[in-house]
Every structure is written in C-alpha cells, then in structure tokens.
Amino acid sequence: MTTLPPVPRARRAALAVALCAGLTAVLTACGGTEPPPPDPDAGTNGVGKLTAAGIEAKARNAVRGAEAVRLAGNLVSKGGTYRLNMRLKGTGAAGSVVNGDTTFELLRVGDVLYLKADAEFWTHAEEASNAPTEADRQAAKKLGGKFVKVPEDDPSYKQLRGFTEMNTLLGGLLVLHGELHKGERDSIGGIRTIKVAGGPGGEGGTLDVSLEGTPYPLKFERGGDAGVVVLSDWNEDFALQEPSKEQSVDYGRQLPRAGG
User: Fold this and answer.
1) How confident is the model at residue 45 (pLDDT cuts 50, 70, 90)?
2) Which of 28, 101, 123, 206 is geometrically suited to a Cys-Cys bond with 32, CB 3.0 to 4.6 A?
3) Confidence (pTM)
4) 172 CB contacts (<8 Å, ≥6 apart)?
5) How many Å apart are CA 229 and CA 227, to the nearest integer?
6) pLDDT in tens, 26-40
7) Is the dihedral of CA 131, 133, 134, 135 positive or negative?
8) Contact at 8 Å (CB) between 81 and 68?
9) What's the CA gap between 256 and 133, in Å, rounded?
C-alpha cells in the first residue's frame, strides 16, 4: 500500500479559506438578497389593480346592487350647509337633517313622509309664511315633537323626500367630474380603500372605494369643498314603522313654510 505524503499546513489553510469563501458565496446567493416588497393587493378584492375608470365602475355597480346604507356628513349647496345622518333603503328612510340652527327628523315609510321638529321650528315656519293667522300660530306650537305627515301635494314634499330616496340621493351625489385618476391607498373605519379622483388634484371630487369584500364607496369628498360624506352599514337592514296616532299629526293641508 502506497502512503500519500502529508499535505503541507499552508496548503491545508488555503484550502479551508477557499471552501469558506465558496460556502459564503452560496449562502449569499441563496438567501442574502432583500425579500421582494409585499403585494399591496394580497388579501383584497382585487379592484386596486384596475384603472381609475374600472374602480369607479365597480363601485357604481356595487351601489346599484345594494339594499341599504347609512349616509352621514355635510353637503354644501346654495341653500347652505346640510348635515345629514340618514339610514336609507328602497322602501324608505329614517334620520336627521341639520341646516344652520334648524334641526329636523325625517321618516318615510313607502310614500308616506313625516317630518319631526321642535316647537320653535314650527313657530318660525309660521312666521315665515304669508300672513299666518293666530290659529296657524297656535297649531304650529302643537306640532312640536310630533311626526307631522307631509301631504304629497305640499311644495316641500318632493324636496324633503329627496333626502330619503336612496337611489336618487346616491346617484346624484356620488359623481366625479373630470378625467379620473387613481389615487393613494387609505383606510376608512379600519377597512382598506383605494382613492379615485376627478381631475389631477381631486378638484372634481374624490371617492374612497373598499378593497375588502364588495367594493362599496366608503367616503366621498365633493369637489370645491362642497361637503364630505361617509357611507357605512351597507346592506344592513333596519326597521321602518309609521308612528302611532299619539306620536303623529296629520296637518291636513300644506305645511307652514320655513324661510329658505
């Protein structure tokens, strides 16, 4: 048997260094690079991958298919600023409207519409009417705190009902003007959203669309500082019931008209 000569110590050290260098290179190549950034659409409904127009279309389809919603926020118009807190569905609505110092509640069950306000509201309404009689003034004081039925032929019926019509209100409100642009991601009430803006700076309005579940719009900022509304409780049903005779009043003719 031939005995191999021993490897010199210097050669053994060089070999060890070479092996370590090779092992380091392998480890670096396999796991030393930075991991890829997380996918922002992981776990979402995928609408964040769409174009701005595609996202808006998905949101509009979701709204058309919805059965109920809560709308809360401010709307600015020529008549002033309205603060709304309304629950809406196809068969009616219930909630409150604030305009300046005036606050009133609305309740609609089918085509029957009620307005509820305090005595001061009705007193001012009578004072704003054309030559109210003393009987009118006394009647107005009795309306405070009652659900007053709004006659369908009353001039205010159509205007007030507009606050209670889900499809009409949302269809006229959630409108973006100008070329659509895809915006940043955000969250509304803990739900991830993607923004769609009308115009490059959002001057035509900004819509936050849910990235979780059905792509409902969750927040809408109107262009020109014309108000911000938050939309929640999508498809959560709520009870609607006409008030009892003790709680309601049928005025029987046109209601007193408040100024403005």
Assistant:
1) very high
2) 28
3) 0.80
4) none
5) 7
6) 444 445 567 778 888
7) negative
8) no
9) 11
**Tokens in use for 169?**
């209100």
Lookup result for tokens 């107005």: 140
Rank 23-32, 140-149, 185-194 by mean pLDDT and report only the highest.
185-194
Q: What is the DSSP string of the chain?
A: -PPPPPPPHHHHHHHHHHHHHHHHHHHHHHH-SPPPPPPTTTTS-SGGGS-HHHHHHHHHHHHHH-SEEEEEEEEEETTEEEEEEEEEETTEEEEEEEETTEEEEEEEETTEEEEE--HHHHHHHHHHSSS--HHHHHHHHHTTTSEEE--TTSHHHHHHHHTT-HHHHHHHHS---SSEEEEEEEEETTEEEEEEEESTTSTT-EEEEESSSS--EEEEE-GGG-EEEEEE-TT------PPPTTTEEE--SPPP----
Provide the residue count of the chain. 260
Cβ burial 227-252 (10 Å sphere, 16+ → b, else e) = bebbbbebeeeeeeebbeeeebbebe
Which residues is 77 bridged to in the sheet?
A: 80
